[in-house]
């Protein structure tokens, strides 16, 4: 029987590092290995792919988080039980989201984990999408909380792209995208007070040109 599933690469930005949501698989094959949030498509419950995606997000407590389809993978080797196909999604959550299952792992810790099926490849596909799209869109803002400073926005891009940004050029680009709303409040701390912003719309906006690290 052909197996069709959804696998979701769920990421958050916590303490200036990207973390991935995983759970322990409780049955064979790959019992006791770590796996991505996933579900089998159920033709009696899922009228279409969007309904299946929504069911997966809801079951994990991620109903209002950003998600997008990354790719479709299918072959005879990915599952020892036979041919299977999966639709891979990327999901970005803010640090305050309380998930219903699994636990968070820093990306740096993944090489030491035993992952089920071809989930190492699926994770790589999700990260590739995040990093490529972050060069030409506001996608990293989906990893921030309801309110944030411009410094936090810049830091999110730098962590994802693994390169420093020219602050003046980066802020000019962000303001030109016209997606931020000044909340009228400021964050105080050791540094001087910084304006708190929020997203005007949850949509991901494309930049007018691609960013190139410190050139931003």
TrEMBL record:
Pfam families: WHD_NrtR. Residues 141-199 form the NrtR DNA-binding winged helix domain. It comes from the Bacteria. InterPro entries: NUDIX_hydrolase-like_dom_sf, WH-like_DNA-bd_sf, WH_DNA-bd_sf, WHD_NrtR. This is NrtR DNA-binding winged helix domain-containing protein. The lineage of its organism: Bacteria, Pseudomonadati, Pseudomonadota, Gammaproteobacteria, Aeromonadales. SUPFAM superfamilies: Nudix, Winged helix' DNA-binding domain. Gene3D superfamilies: Nucleoside Triphosphate Pyrophosphohydrolase, Winged helix-like DNA-binding domain superfamily/Winged helix DNA-binding domain.
């Amino acid at each position: 029987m052909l197996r069709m599933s959804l696998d979701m690469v769920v990421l958050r930005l916590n303490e200036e590092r990207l973390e991935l949501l995983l759970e322990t698989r409780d049955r064979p094959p790959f019992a006791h290995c770590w796996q991505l949030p996933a579900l089998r498509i159920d033709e009696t419950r899922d009228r279409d792919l969007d309904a299946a995606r929504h069911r997966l997000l809801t079951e994990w407590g991620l109903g209002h988080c950003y998600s997008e389809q990354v790719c479709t993978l299918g072959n005879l080797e990915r599952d020892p039980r036979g041919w299977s196909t999966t639709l891979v999604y990327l999901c970005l959550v803010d640090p305050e989201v309380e998930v219903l299952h699994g636990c968070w792992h820093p990306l740096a810790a993944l090489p030491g984990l035993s992952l089920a099926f071809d989930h190492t490849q699926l994770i790589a596909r999700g990260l590739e999408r995040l990093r490529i799209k972050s060069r030409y869109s506001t996608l990293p803002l989906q990893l921030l909380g309801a309110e944030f400073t411009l410094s936090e926005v810049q830091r999110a891009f730098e962590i994802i792209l693994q390169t420093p940004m020219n602050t003046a050029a980066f802020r000019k680009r962000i303001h030109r995208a016209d997606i931020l709303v000044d909340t009228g409040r400021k964050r105080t701390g050791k540094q001087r007070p910084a304006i708190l912003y929020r997203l005007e719309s949850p949509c991901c906006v494309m930049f007018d040109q691609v960013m190139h690290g410190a050139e931003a």
